[in-house]
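Hello Y.,

Per our agreement to keep a running log of every chain we model this quarter, I'm adding this entry. I've kept the format consistent with earlier entries: sequence first, then predicted structure.
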Amino acid sequence: MGEEAKAALLPKREEEDGDGEGDEGISMTLMESSKLGKRVWEESKKLWMVAGPAIFSRVVTYSMNVITQAFAGHLGDLELASMSIANTVVVGFNFGLLLGMASALETLCGQAFGAKKYHMLGIYMQRSWIVLFVCATVLLPLYFFATPILELTGQPPELAAQAGLVSIWFIPLHFSFVFLFPLQRFLQCQLKNSVHAIVSAIAMVIHIFVSWIFVYHFKLGLIGTAMTLNFSWWVAVALLMCYVSCGGCPQTWKGLSMEAFTGLWEFLKLSAASGVMLCLENWYYRILIVLTGNLKNAEIAVDALSICMSINGWELMIPLAFFAATGVRVANELGAGNGKGARFATVVAVITSSIVGAFFCAVIMALHDKFAFIFTTSQVVIGAVGELSVLLAFTILLNSVQPVLSGVAVGAGWQSVVAYVNIGTYYLIGIPVGVLMGWAKIASSRMEIYSSRSR
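Predicted structure for the entry above:
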């Protein structure tokens, strides 16, 4: 009986052993999930430490452009179109190149900060000022000859003339980029984005007040709106410079140095690659607006597309903040010799930015017939914007991923590779398809007119 009892117990013991193994497996899975969750949480905190203030500061800074455009829009349709062409196309072309060139600092300063070579951050920033100032000076003819250039692209003469005049008034804004962009990246790589966020908020408040004074009190019209944008951006430059030079960055800012004039050629090559990488994408949107000026009812078409692109650009500040944060995280991890950490930071950033993009895609779909009221009261323009809203929503969704991947390239120093990708996707595919679809729209409209007349 004792042996039978033992035999009867054997299966139970095996089952118990099996259950033990199952419990152990579940326990291991839970431990791994807990570790992964903890890693995601820690990485998310590091990501949002850069991205959070960057989102705020970028949205606020871009909002100043949107406010300027809205003031112009309430002056009239021609004024809105002129401001859109001047700010979005002329200034935007140069903005894209200078912003891209300044992003070389994200690679250099990020890796230097990760390697604890703190003094080099100030040197790199001064080199960036020199390179960007030379580049900004070379780009000045685009402002002086904006009117004939716009006429050559097929813009209506009245629109080209007024946009050209506004462009000249934007020259001070153009030179503010030379100093502001490197200062932003200098602070960003030290995880001091909160300083830029505070400065942006101050500049925003000043911009709203000055815009009201210039446009409604002094009645300076379209030129007044341009002057307010110049003033507000230079306020931001002055405040950031005061913070840096008055002891805000004791480890990384040691004052002006002649060392900034050494190694300029290598710095220029990396800056040029960064500039080409970003401006190819940035220019793509400007070219679409220029092409829109050749469509029927050019003012309405330009107004509608520029409103959609303003909303897209407004929301794009969030993915661009993740672009900056990802670049910093990847550069810091690579500077510290941690390749796996850089890869994990990339995955977390892509997922986070995609979730944010999906949210704003849903918002645009829900408010497709409402958001144009920010810029205009013209029912024709509002209707045209409503027709474009579905494309705008999907553009916002897709744009939530692409800038983050570009941030990985900046952090790793792969700018030249991304430049080739941008040439292929935007210029060999995007623009030809846009021209073809625009031509088809014109042909369809003309066929409708012809058929209605023949009746």
